Amino acid sequence: MRTKVFTLALACVCCFSLSYAQRAPSAKTEPAAKTEPVSPSRTIVPESSVVTQHQATINGQRIAYKATAGTLPVWDEEGKAIAGLFYTYYERSDVQNRDSRPLVISFNGGPGSASVWMHIAYTGPVVLKIDDEGYPVQPYGYKENPSSILDVADIIYIDPVNTGYSRPTSKDVPGAKFFGVNADIKYLAEWINTFVTRSNRWASPKFLIGESYGTTRVSGLALELQNSQWMYLNGVILVSPTELGIERSGPVEAALRLPYYAATAWYHKVLPSDLQSKTLSAFLPEVEEFTINELLPAMARGNFLTEQKKKEIAAKMARYSGISEKVILQYNLDVSTNFFWKELLRDKGFTVGRLDSRYKGIDKNDGGDRPDYNAELTSWLHSFTPAINMYLRNELNYKTDLKYNMFGSVRPWDNSNDKTGENLRQAMAQNPYLNVMVQSGYFDGACDYFNAKYSMWQLDPGGRLKDRLSFEGYESGHMMYLRKDDLSKGNRHIREFILKSLPKPGVPAKF
């Protein structure tokens, strides 16, 4: 594909290629095929690109691919550039006709988080140098990702405004243009249109993948792309999904936490021996059935639940959660996640992580009702932040003095009128080609797996779409791919989902 050259208004410096000896040994990179200048200042260049050529062994094949790192504008109603979005676009090089080549459009969450997480730890051609369970090791760095989905699909990773290198063009641009559930969906749909048009990918089967708040984003985008850009998808992948605007409160919200508590207690080996001896996959269905059939109806009765029944329910909750019956009764069966993270290993002097409860933290005091910090997030930032800064500059030759925002300022964020779950349902109802897959880690306490199942159940109450909905669970946390086994398994599930979601030639989109 020919790279289009853009004229930049700002004074810039040209990027240059590093020699092969200076690069990571896992991703051989040829000199840049074509480069365009990138800003040496801390102001955004709305349009820029740097192209490099690479090779990697993925899914047992030696694959050549092209990487484009750059920015494209966000336009206002008058066609003026009001922001530049940073993206990284990977294309397999030996594809002659991309009309049938799937394109995966990837977002992370926050909502103020860059796309770094899935980019260099899950689906992209390189992954972090970490241990097999996801803990940081030094020296920091990255290596080839043998599990990447680049063998079956091209991928673009997009950083929304104020994340990564993406910025408004001026401080005078109102934040309301970007920072809200629906504003976010609207401008990103317009941007995707620009990218797809410039990249000549209108004919390609298209997939959205989002993690955490990114699942809210892509659920809304599925309908917005159809209704406002006339762009139809083949699949949406929800990694560690949020509530998607689907109502749950009171007894429902409280009861749905228990299966996650049970999974975490099982991992930390604090359950009775008969439960601890079971595999997680054998144990969790028992807890799920109790949650739906006993706990939820009991909590719905509130103070009219008999004391005897309340004690029976608390005893079962204690058996499954690792929290004492006495404490559960003190909380009237409604144990908050903050308290659980503090309480589960309190007698051992540890807290457990929010996004991944396999991680342990140490607080100043054993007393209290919530941890001092998120043990897992500080661990992840150890390994991700150096790696993405090294990779973009040294491997992809994108050089700028802008700070790469792992997390950016997007407040105040307008959460009103979040109907993204319903948006996704409507998109599926209107588009017979559209399939949805959910991926969740059992030890994720922020976007827990049982709430993800509940969202999937409630997404389509009539049941007509359930044959196009699927769920995959993993013995890890929010970023299940940080665990080596689940990196391979999760990518395999995505690869299978993409291939399954491609209609056979000539099969029409109709019910």
From TrEMBL:
Keyword Cytoplasm found: no
GO molecular function ontology, one term from the record: serine-type carboxypeptidase activity
Keywords: Carboxypeptidase, Glycoprotein, Hydrolase, Protease, Signal
Organism classification: Bacteria, Pseudomonadati, Bacteroidota, Sphingobacteriia, Sphingobacteriales
Cited Pfam families: Peptidase_S10
UniProt entry tagged with the keyword Ribonucleoprotein: no
Signal peptide region: 1-21
Top-level taxon: Bacteria
Species whose genome carries this gene: Pedobacter steynii
Matching InterPro entries: AB_hydrolase_fold, Peptidase_S10
Swiss-Prot/TrEMBL GO biological process terms: proteolysis
Protein name listed in UniProt: Carboxypeptidase C (Cathepsin A)
